Each structure stands twice: as C-alpha cells, then as structure tokens.
Amino acid sequence: METLIRVLGFSSIGFVLLIFLFLLQEGVPAFLEIEPGNLFGTRWYPTFDLFGTMPLILGSVLVTITAIAISLPLGVATAVFVREVAPNWAREILKPMIEVLAGIPSVVLGFFGMTLIAPAVREVFGAPTGLTAFTGALILAYMALPTIISVAEDALDAVPKSYRDAGLAMGATQWQTIWRVVVPAARSGIVTAVMLGMGRAIGETMAVMMVTGNAARMPLGLDAIFRPIRTMTATIAAEMGEVAQGSIHYHVLFGVGIILFVLTFAINLTAASVMFKKRRRGGLR
Amino acid sequence: MNRHAAQRAGFAVLALAALVVVIPILFVVGTIVARGTGAISWEFLTAMPRDGMKAGGIFPAVVGTLLLTLGTALAAIPVGVGGAIYLSEYARDNRLTRSIRLAIVNLAGIPSVVYGLFGLGLFVLFLHFGTSILAGSLTLAIMTLPIIISTAEEALRAVPTEFRTVSASLGGTQWQAVRYIVLPQALPGIITGVILGLLRAAGETAPILFTVAAFFLPSLPHSVFDQTMALPYHLYVVSTQVPGMPLKIQFGTALVLLILVLSMNVVATTIRSYFRRRRQW
Fold it and tell me: Would strands B49-50 and A44-45 be described as parallel, antiparallel, or unpaired?
C-alpha cells in the first residue's frame, strides 16, 4: 500500500511529462514541415496552407493584457477591502459571492456575454459588432478576479500585525498604513496573484471563443480592441473538430498547443518560484 | 484635503471596487435564473431533444454530464487522495518533493483546451479508446487532480502532529496511523476538495470537445466506449451552432448547468464549515 502511495505521489510529474510528450509528438511535425516564414507569418488561412500564427498569438496577448489591466486594480482593491477595511457582515457576503463567480462555468459566462454584453458593447461604443477583443477581455477580467483576489488576500494576510501596529503608532492613519506599509510588504504575493490570473486568462477557451468574433486578423491599430480578434485557444477549439487526423493543419493546432503550454508553464513557474522563495526564507519578501 | 478626509475617500474607493466586482455576479446569476426558470419543466429535464433540438428536453445532456462526473470521480479520487497522502505524510522536504509541487502548480495552470489536445492524442488516438466516455472522463480526471491533491493535502496537514505521535507510541505503524487516525479526521476536508474538483470537471467544455462530446445523439450511451452529449457542450451548441434556436432553451440549459455546479459548490462549503465548527482540535 505504501509503495502504491509513493507511486501516486509522483504521478503529477508523470502527467506533466506525458502531456508535454504527446504535444511534442503531434505538434513538432508542424515546425519541421512548415517554413518559419509561413508559421510565424501574419496570415492564418489553413485552407490555403497559410499557417501564420502571429494574429492568434497577438490576439491572445491583447485580450489577456486588457483583461489584467481591468482586473488588477479591481482585484487588489477588493482584496484590500475584504482583508483590511470591510466590516464582518460585508466580508460574509463578499467571500461567498467571489466563490460563486469562481464556480460559474466558462461556457455559461460566454453565453451570457454573447447574448447580453456583446449587444451592449455595440451600442455603447458604436462598433459594427459587439463581438470584440474588449468584450472578451471584460469577461476574462471577471474570470481572473477570484484567483487574483484570493491570492492577494493570502499575501495581505501574511503581513505581520506588528507592521500595522508600527504604522499606526507612528501617527499614520489606517489608510496611510495600508498603502505605504501593508500593500508594499505584500508586493511579491500580489505579483504572484497577477501572474496566476494572467495564466488563467491566456488559457481560457470557451468564453473567449464565444464573444471575440474569431476573426484571425492582426490586432494592430488603435481601434484593434474594438474589433473582432481570435485567440490561440479559440483556434484550437474551433478547428480541431474539423481537421483530418495527421494532416498539416492537425499538427499545427498541436503546435499552437505547445506554444500555449510553454507560455503558461513559464508564467506558473515564475509565480511558483516567487511563492517558494518566500516560504523558504520564512520572511515576508 | 486633510488625511482623515483622504482616508474616508480611500475607503469609499475600495468599497466601490468591491461593488463593481459583486454587482455583475449578481446580475449574471439573477438574469440566468429569471430568464431560465420559465424553460424548466419536468419535460425539459427528462425528454429527448426534438425538432433539431429546438424543442423537447435536454435529458441526454444531463445524463451525459452525470456519467462524465462519475467517471472523473472514479479515476481522480484514488490518484488524487493517494498523491496527497504521499505529500503530507511521507515526502521529505527535498528537491524531488519540490519538483512534485512544481508539477502540481503547472498541472493546475495548463489551459483546459490543451488538456483536450492531450486527451485526443493519448486516450482517443494512441490508446484507441475512440471519442468515448472513457477518454473524456480520464482527460477530465487529470485536469481535476491538482485541485484534489492540494485541498486534500491541506486537510491532511491540518490534523495535529500529536495524533500521529500517539499512534506511534502505542506501537502503530505509520500506515496504521494514516489509515485509522489521520485519514478519517481529514475526511470532511478531503470530500470538500473532491467536490470542488468535480464541479470544475462538470462545467468544463474544452477538454471534452474532441474526447467525448457529441453534437446530438438519438439515444443514451450504452457503454464507456460510446460518445455522449454533455451539458456544457450542449449549451455551446444551442447558443452558437444552431441558427434560430429559441432563447428560452438556451437560458434553460444555462440555468440547469448553473444550478448543478453551484449546488455542488454549496454542498462543498457546507461540509467544510459544518465540520470545522464541530471538530474538537
């Protein structure tokens, strides 16, 4: 029994390796068979053998960055409110609400986004269609919020009470103590929160696919945010069902999967190393 | 502006941010409940879809999601709880253990659609399971593993060290301490973690897209090697793939899925807070 437990303990490493292995096996042919100029070009028209992944990569980046720009201030402010300021009754309402948000399936948010938010975006911004990068970013921002709030809250929680006492004893108001002492002390935890939220946003599939319009064009120019775009995740989800197994298109979609895997791996590795370093030093920063 | 006025203004901004977070949540849940309730009837839940899914019920999708969740549970619980027991009771703090933790963090961060690709590559094609309940459940199980492992480990670690010491002082082996003392004490926390993992599996669409989900099936699945319909995929289908679909059916499907995952959420948090209040240590 104990041997079995030991084996199960190591299973996570096995699964990560297995996932990477299968992505490589199915995806690497894409990098070998298609010339780099095409693969990293700006035109994604698989029916004409044009596999430029640039619009998809930039599409993902644009939506993710916009989403984080919305959810970072909202999330950190909410975490500070819940942890430092809110009266007990408000905390009792806020925390379960945020858990509810974390539990809503992404396809439900996507459905909600396309039936109610997209028409509103079209009206408000006068865009030709409501299915835009902005609509996707808005929904992604809310999907990333539970992660950002809970990790940031843990970080604030880890700041010793003596820091707060010292701030107040120096004559600072509670507000000054929060912004000049507590939040800076929790800085690394907040960075972790944002990284994890970013990882969540870049890998999100269904909601993004349903509200961003899925036009594989380069998101350049100032109005790109109010135009349809297409992300890497949406491309895989929308096209994998239709390709012939073993075709170049099939391998390219796995290749896009490799890019996603490596990106999220790097993001999570950074976030985790910040976390582990903090734990090992036993200190705050 | 003096600093006390600044404090009042600052707190007001924070409260406003919290409102901006909470109000859309209420709005989303409220709208789906308000517009979906009218669609839900006994027939909607227990009948097969009719007229190109524009009428009738969503029975096969509900059954499919329950089957997939059950399959996920069967595969993920033993592996996840076993992994958690290893990390909490046996693992030493060395490089190897740190790589396991790193692997778990990364497993949790892999996009759901990449799990779908992996399931397609390994289970559907390489192991020849085909697009089937088996392939879909195993894919979802690996996706839920990190959630189950980390919550179960936390529950096991919360059991005081003294419990293990006392067991050892009475001549118990380490395994006996784990099996008869630690595991029973940590059980409520583990169950909470398992439910939280399973509710994520029940609501996911991307991992089942290429591993199990069917657009429409005239009958229920007969074996684990059959395809099945599933609620999240069905919601995607009725809201994007079929033109002229009545909004009522879309909102009804969304509401059933929402009720399913949120009720699992409530069960999980109730178990957690009930046993936290009752435990003696």
Answer: unpaired
Strand B55-56 to strand A44-45: parallel, antiparallel, or no bridges (unpaired)?
Answer: unpaired
**Cβ neighbours of B83 in A, within 8 Å:** 8-9, 11-12
pLDDT at position A278, please?
Answer: 61
Q: Do the Cβ atoms of B110 and A261 come within 8 Å?
A: yes
DSSP A35: -
As given in the structure block, the two tokens for residue A172 are 């600072």
Q: Do A12 and B107 touch (CB under 8 A)?
A: yes
Tell if the CB–CB gap between B86 and A23 is shorter than 8 Å.
no
Q: What is the mean pLDDT of residues B191-197?
A: 93
The C-alpha atoms of residue B124 and residue B136 are separated, in whole angstroms, by 9
**Closest alpha carbon within chain A to B265:** A103
Tally of CB atoms within 10 A around A270: 16
Query: What ipTM was estimated for this complex?
Result: 0.92
CA distance A15 to B142: 8
Say if residues B45 and B59 touch (Cβ distance below 8 Å).
Answer: yes
pLDDT tens digits, one per residue of B62-110: 999 999 999 999 999 999 999 999 999 999 888 899 999 999 999 999 9
Question: Per the structure block, which two tokens stand in for A146?
Answer: 């539970």
CA–CA distance, B249 with B55 (Å, rounded to integer)? 8
Strands of B32-146 (E only): list them.
49-50, 55-56
Mean pLDDT of B16-28: 95
In whole angstroms, give the CA distance from residue B46 to residue A188: 51
**Model confidence over A186-238: pLDDT tens digits?**
998 999 999 999 999 999 999 999 999 888 889 888 788 899 999 999 999 99
Q: Kindly report the length of chain B.
A: 281
Judge contact between B231 and B260, C-beta under 8 A: yes
| Inter-chain Cβ pairs, chain A and chain B, closer than 8 A | 264
Q: How confident is the model over A42-54, as a mean pLDDT?
A: 90
Q: Nearest-CA neighbor of B80 among B198, B194, B207, B177?
A: B194
pLDDT of A280 reads 52
pLDDT reading at A285 higher than 50: no
